[in-house]
């Protein structure tokens, strides 16, 4: 697996969501991207979670915008009048995460946009597996684009990496926060989706995704192995979080 690389050529507008301040930018391939900055919020750990989570979702057949490695030159943004944005650009020199911008997409609303029990259950399974706390009624992180459901922003996933020492314990977590998932009420087939997901995901795939991450996003090269081990162990013990999702 290898992610495409682009260079950011134009800063268009900030997306003032939460404290991370992503932005819509244009790259040298003339496409627009939502740029997730390495200098924002949780730094490169959020970029890792977003990338790994997104690629796992894609492997399961869910729709996720293309993710690219977006290079930001150190001279970029010097004329930016907003000091907060200028600082963010300065601290984000190097490799950032670009997510293809879905122009005209609207926020998913479970009342207005009904989906099947199978899809709801698969998304709940995914977020329980990833320990994603950020797919709630308040913030669904799902979009409707061309009448199809797209998943975005997995940056709050894999939060074990904020406390490396407990990764083995956290890999076995039932993930009680799944009770707040926006689709939980419709997710009646999580057990069936567990069987489906385990027929597709495996350690070899996790290795491909994690090994494609930029070196500059990792604190230590050995961190790759911990991500791979965590995902593999969590998949092997998936019944722990499946049972919680069915409560």
UniProtKB/TrEMBL annotation:
InterPro entries, sorted: HipA_2
Pfam families in alphabetical order: HipA_2
Domain HipA-like kinase: residue ranges: 10-236
Domain of life assignment: Bacteria
Record's protein name: HipA-like kinase domain-containing protein
Lineage start: Bacteria, Pseudomonadati, Bacteroidota, Cytophagia, Cytophagales
């Amino acid at each position: 697996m290898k992610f495409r690389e682009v260079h950011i050529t134009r800063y268009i507008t900030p997306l003032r969501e939460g404290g991370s301040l992503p932005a819509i930018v244009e790259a040298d391939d003339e496409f627009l991207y939502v740029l997730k900055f390495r200098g924002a919020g949780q730094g490169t750990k959020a970029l890792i979670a977003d990338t790994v989570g997104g690629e796992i979702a894609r492997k399961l057949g869910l729709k996720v915008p293309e993710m690219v490695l977006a290079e930001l030159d150190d001279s970029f943004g010097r004329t930016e009048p907003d000091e907060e944005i200028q600082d963010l650009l300065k601290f984000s020199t190097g490799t950032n995460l670009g997510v293809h911008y879905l122009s005209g997409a609207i926020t998913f609303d479970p009342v207005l946009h009904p989906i099947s029990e199978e899809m709801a259950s698969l998304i709940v399974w995914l977020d329980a597996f990833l320990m994603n706390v950020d797919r709630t009624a308040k913030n669904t992180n799902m979009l409707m684009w061309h009448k199809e459901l797209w998943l975005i922003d997995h940056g709050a996933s894999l939060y074990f990496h904020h406390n490396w020492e407990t990764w083995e314990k956290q890999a076995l977590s039932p993930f009680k926060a799944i009770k707040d998932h926006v689709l939980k009420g419709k997710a009646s087939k999580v057990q069936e989706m567990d069987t489906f997901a385990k027929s597709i995901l495996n350690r070899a795939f996790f290795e491909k995704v994690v090994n494609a991450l930029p070196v500059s996003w990792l604190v230590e090269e050995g961190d790759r192995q911990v991500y791979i081990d965590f995902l593999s162990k969590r998949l092997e013990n998936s019944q722990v979080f499946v049972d919680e999702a069915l409560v």
